[in-house]
């Protein structure tokens, strides 16, 4: 049940936040996911620990190897920072999150820990092979995003741990970025299926491909068979058509209120052809 008297504590620094979380506090950053869950009575923490203004989690810093994004950096801040210009795929996906208000409140850390198969920041994070940097009572550790996310709402976060930051390694070259999310309406859409891609091309053919699908399996997935089969293909939707069944078979969708499993599989296949078309159009 929602407790109107639920206490929110604002720690001075990360060390104090970790102590409070070990003492049973639940972290809250933007609150856009957590307050919905509290209202529904899905969770009833002893007290909340507001981590949204901790300087250690508000870092946005370019290093030699890539970009460090503090967990409490909001989607809106990422969209407006010149530091994310080198990651257009991240911007394409973040732009589709909720509404301007949700983008202003919601954080990358919250999106990652929420571990929704429809989490829109997750598609670019899987494509970019991001690392999730964690801190807790036993120190710091780092996990690839695909090892951190274990299933819908399930992560490898240990008791007392926080996501400190997400690290995005720089890419070689400038691959073509693609992100499309299909939903039941135009605004405030939760994806029925989404496809993100990074495509490196050479001489009119695919040199290398990374694909990530959202909302068609318990976690975001990288269909490696399709990525490999794309190498060497001409940039032409007709030359990719035979890969549609391969992509569909890589999905493990569920049927729910938003769409049937079969529809999700079909949408995933169509998105592959849309990617090819969009790649062809930009030449
Ligand atoms: C109307 C609406 C529309 C939305 N639309 C979209 C959408 O289109 N796409 C999408 O992907 N999401 C969407 N969301 C979901 C949500 O806005 C995002 O997932 C957002 O990024 C969550 O961030 P937050 O800071 O608000 O998380 P919070 O609600 O503060 O936290 C979410 C969870 O993560 C935990 N947590 C937060 N930060 C940390 C941390 N650093 N370490 C450990 N645990 C942490 C919290 O304890 C909680 O369990 C929508 C939500 C609403 C209400």
Verbal overview:
This protein has 283 residues and is an alpha+beta fold. A hairpin with a 2-residue loop joins strand 6 and strand 7 (139-144). The protein has helices spanning 14-22, 34-40, 75-80, 88-94, 100-105, 108-114, 122-127, 145-148, 224-230, 237-240, 244-250, 261-281; strands at residues 8-9, 25-28, 47-50, 60-62, 66-70, 131-136, 139-144, 149-151, 154-155, 162-169, 176-182, 193-202, 205-214. The radius of gyration is 19 Å and the shape is globular. The mean pLDDT is 94. Strands 4-5-10-6-7 form a 5-stranded antiparallel sheet. It has a 3-stranded parallel sheet with strand order 1-3-2, covered by helices on one side. The chain starts with 7 loop residues before the first strand and ends with a helix. The protein folds into 3 domains: 8-50, Uridine Diphospho-n-acetylenolpyruvylglucosamine Reductase, domain 2; 55-169, Uridine Diphospho-n-acetylenolpyruvylglucosamine Reductase, domain 3; 176-281, Enolase-like, domain 1. The structure holds flavin-adenine dinucleotide.
